[in-house]
Amino acid sequence: MAKQNKNKTNESTPNWQELYIQFVLEHNKRPQSAYEFCKFSSLSEETFYETYGTIDALESDIWLYFFTETKSQIQADEQYQAYSVREKLLAFDYTWLENLRSYRSFITLVLSSHSSPMWQKKASFAKFKEEFTNYAQELLSEAQETGEVKNRNVINNAYPKVLWGQTLYLLNFWIKDSSSNFEQTDAAVEKTVNLFFDMAGHSFIDSFVDFAKFSFQSFKF
Amino acid sequence: MKKDQKSIPTSKIARATKFIQTGVKLGGNYVKHYAKKMVNPELTKDELHEDNAKDIYDTLSQLKGSALKVAQMMSMDKNVLPKAYTDRFTMAQYSAPPLSYPLVVKTFKQNLGKTPTEIFDTFSKEAINAASIGQVHQATLGNKKLAVKIQYPGVADSIKSDLKMVKPFAVRLLNMNEKDLEMYMGEVEGKLLEEADYELELKRSVEISKACKHFPDLFFAEYYPEYSSKRILTMDWLDGLHLPDFLQTNPSQEIRNKIGQALWDFYDYQVHTLRAVHADPHPGNFLLTQDGKIGVIDFGCIKEIPTDYYDNYFIIINPHLLTDDDTLLKRFKQLDFILEQDTPEQQAFFMNIFKEMIRLLGKPFHTDSFDFGNDDYFQEIYQYAEKLAKMEELRKTNQARGSRHGLYINRTYFGLYSILNQLKANIKTTKPEFLTKPVLENI
User: Fold this and answer.
1) Using alpha carbons only, what angle is made at residue A28 by residues A23 and A29, rounded to the nearest 5 degrees?
2) How confident is the model over B162-166, as a mean pLDDT?
3) CA B139 to chain CA centroid, nearest Å
4) Does A193 touch chain B (CB under 8 A)?
5) What are chain B's domains?
6) pLDDT for B31-76, tens place per residue?
7) In chain A, what residues touch B109 (CB-CB under 8 Å)?
8) Can you tell me the distance from the alpha carbon of A216 to that of A210, in angstroms, rounded to the nearest whole number?
9) Which residues contact B151 (CB under 8 A, 6 or more apart)?
10) Which of A90, A183, A184 minimises the CB distance to B100?
11) Is the distance from CB of B106 to CB of B221 less than 8 angstroms?
12) Which residues of chain A are within 8 Å of residue B99 when distances are taken between CB atoms?
C-alpha cells in the first residue's frame, strides 16, 4: 500500500485502500457514500461491493493493515524474541506509532470526521481490535509464564481490554501531540506501559486482597 | 539504581501534586503560627519562616530535576538557607526515570537511522548509570570501549514547565520581587536548555578538551560526531573513580594535592584565559585515577563570561581593594551589588556584608597556597551564611543584588571549593597577576 500509484486497470483487483487514502487526502473528508468514492476512483460501485459492503469495512481493513504490518516488522527483528513482555509491548507501540506517522494526515482527517466523541467504538476499528486483542492475549499468557503479570483469575479477562484502551489512548494522545518528533507521545508510551505492568505484576493490591480475605475468613476484624 | 529512580515523581501531575502538598503544609504552618500567636503575642514570624523553608526544601528535594537546580542555585547565591540545607542542596543531582530499551532503539533509529546493535559491536541493554538528563549505555566498537549518552524524550518541555511551577515558591522562599526573579530564571532556563542540546555539548566538549590538552594531569574523552545527534552523544569510556569511591581507596596526600592542583589550574585557565567555564563542578563529572589524574566529562553546562562582567567581578577579590572603600564602592555599583536607590544606611549595610563575603570567599586567592583541607575555613563560611540567613534587614529587602552572570560563576567556585575540601588538597592557588598586585588605575 505504501506505493502511491493509482491502480485503475481492471486486470487485477483495484487497490481500494490506496485509493481510499488518496480520496480522503484530496477531499479533506471521508466519502459520504460508496458512490462518491467510486466516482472519484472511476470505478463502478459494483466492483466496490465485490470486496466491501460498506466504507467502514474498507477503513477497517486499513487499520488492520497498520497492525499486521507492525506485528510482522517487530517479529522479524532478531532481538524481539529475547525481549521481556514489557519490552515487546513497548516495541509494538513505538513501531506502530512510527508506521502511522507517514499517514498522519489521513488518520487525523478520518478520525476527526467521525462526529461522535466515542469514535473509539466505530466500526472501522473492528478488525484491528479483534487482532490486537488476540495479540495482547498472546503477550499476556507469555507474561504470566515469565511472572511479569500475576494471575488474578477473573481480572485476567480485563487485561486485553485495558491494553486496547491504552492503545486508543496513545492514538488519541499522538493525534493531539504538538511536540517535535512527537516526543511527548514517546513519554506517554513509556509511562502507560510501565503503569500497566506495575499494576498487573505482583503489587500491594495482592497483599491487600490476601489480607482482606484472611481477615474475613477468620472473623477477626 | 532503578529502585531509587522509581521513587521520584516524574509526571507533571505527580510534580504538581507535590507542590500542592507543600501549599497545604505552608497553610498549616500559618495556622500554627497564628494559633501560637494568640497564646503568645510576642511571637515573631521567624519560626514561621523556618517552618516554611523546611517544608519547601523537603518538597524540592523530592522533585529533583530542574526545580531543585533552581532552588539550589538561588539559595547559594542569596544565602537564604541555613547550612544544613545548602549542604544537602550541593549534593543534589538530576535524576530521570530510566528509558526502556525499545525507546533507546527507537531514538537511535530516529536520530541515526540504525539500531544500536547495527552500529556497535556490543551495546548494553540496561543503562550503566544515569546522566544529568538521560542515561549512559556502554558500547564497544572494534577495540574501543564507548559511553553512549541518550536523552530522555521531552526534556526541554519539562524544563520549562518545572521552572514555571517553581516560580511562585521561589518568590516566597527568596523574598525577591518577580521581575528580578524573572532575570535569574531566564539565565537558568537558558543554561538548562543548552544542557539538553547534545549537539552543542559535543561542539563545546571538543573545543575545551582541545584548548586544555596541555595539562598533563587532565584527560578527556574523544567524541564521535558520526554516532551522535541532538539526543545521542557517543564518546570514549573513561576509566576512573568518582570522588567518594576514590577517597575510599585512601589516596596519599601527595596524590590528593596533585589532583587538587590540576583541578584548580584547569579552572584558572578556563576562567581567566578561555573565559568560558565548565560550570557544573559536581563530583559526578570527574573521574579520578590512582596515579593522580582527572578525567573530565559532561560539558553540558558551559558559562561564557562576558568581558565587562569579567573586568568588574574578578578585580573585587583583590585584597588591596578591601582597604580602599571608594574604589570598592564603585565596583559594587557596577556589579549591581549596591543600587542607586539605596539609602546611606542600606549602602553601609550591604557594603559591610559584601566586604565580609569577599574577605572570606576570596581567602584562597589572597595567599600563594591554600589548604582546602582546613575545615575551620569552611565552617566559617557556613557560619557566615547562617548569620546572613538570620539577618532581618537582608530578609526584608526584595531587591535582587548581583548580576545574573554571577549565578553560574558562584556556583562553579562553590562546587570547586567543595571538591577541593573533600579532597583535603593543599595547593598553589595559581591566579592572574591583577588579582594580587595593588590596584592603581582609577575607574
Assistant:
1) 75
2) 68
3) 29
4) yes
5) 2-94+158-174 (no CATH), 97-151+197-237 (3.30.200), 240-443 (no CATH)
6) 554 555 545 545 454 454 455 555 555 554 444 444 444 544 544 4
7) 98
8) 10
9) B107, B133, B134, B196, B198, B230, B231, B232
10) A90
11) no
12) 190
Measured between beta carbons, the chain A residues lying within 8 angstroms of B110 are: 181
Q: Look-up: residue for cell 587538587?
A: B260
Find cell 480485563 and name the residue: A158
Say which of B101, B115, B154 has its CB closest to residue A187.
B154
Chain A CB contacts of B11 below 8 Å:
191
What is the C-alpha separation between B382 and B363, in angstroms, rounded? 14
Convert the pLDDT of each residue in A24-75 to its tens digit. Answer: 999 888 888 888 888 888 888 888 898 888 888 888 999 999 999 999 999 9
Interface of B with A (CB under 8 A): 11, 97, 99-103, 105-106, 109-110, 115, 117, 152-154, 157
For chain B, the straight-line distance linking the first and the last C-alpha, in angstroms and rounded, comes to 55
Look at strands B232-236 and B294-296 and give their pairing.
unpaired
Closest CA to A24 of A101, A121, A103, A126: A103
Contact flag A186-B154 (C-beta cutoff 8 Å)? yes
DSSP string, B199-210: HHHHHHHHHHHH
Count of CB pairs separated by less than 8 Å, A with B: 47
CA B364 – CA B23 distance, rounded (Å): 42
Interface touch B153/A187, C-beta < 8 Å: yes
Asked if B32 and B43 count as a contact pair (C-beta separation under 8 A), the reply is no
- The three three-digit cell numbers of residue B66, written as one number: 530542574
Nearest by CB to A184, from B97, B103, B157: name it.
B157
Phi-psi label, residue B218: left if phi above 0, alpha if psi -120 to 50, beta otherwise = beta
- Which residue(s) pair with B184 in the sheet? none
**CA nearest neighbour of A159 among A172, A177, A142:** A142
Distant-in-sequence, close-in-space partners of B205: CB < 8 Å, separation ≥ 6:
B220, B221, B223, B235, B299
Out of A83, A86, A183, closest to residue B153 by CB: A183
Contact between residue B351 and residue B338 where contact means Cβ atoms under 8 Å apart: yes
Give the contacts of B134 (CB within 8 A, at least 6 positions apart).
B96, B99, B149, B150, B151, B152, B155, B231
B101 neighbourhood in chain A, CB within 8 Å? 83, 87, 90
Could you tell me which residues come within 8 angstroms of residue B168 by beta carbon, excluding any fewer than 6 positions away? none
Q: Nearest-CA residue of chain B relative to A190?
A: B100
**Per the CB < 8 Å rule, is B153 touching A184?**
yes
The residues, any chain, with a CB within 8 Å of residue A11's CB and separated by 6 or more, are: none
ipTM, 2 decimals? 0.71
Distance from CA of B16 to the nearest CA of A (A): 17
Burial B165-192, CB ≥16 within 10 A → b, else e:
bbbebbeebbebeeebbeebbebbbebb
Percent of chain A with pLDDT over 70: 89
Closest-CA distance, B218 to chain A, in angstroms, reads: 37
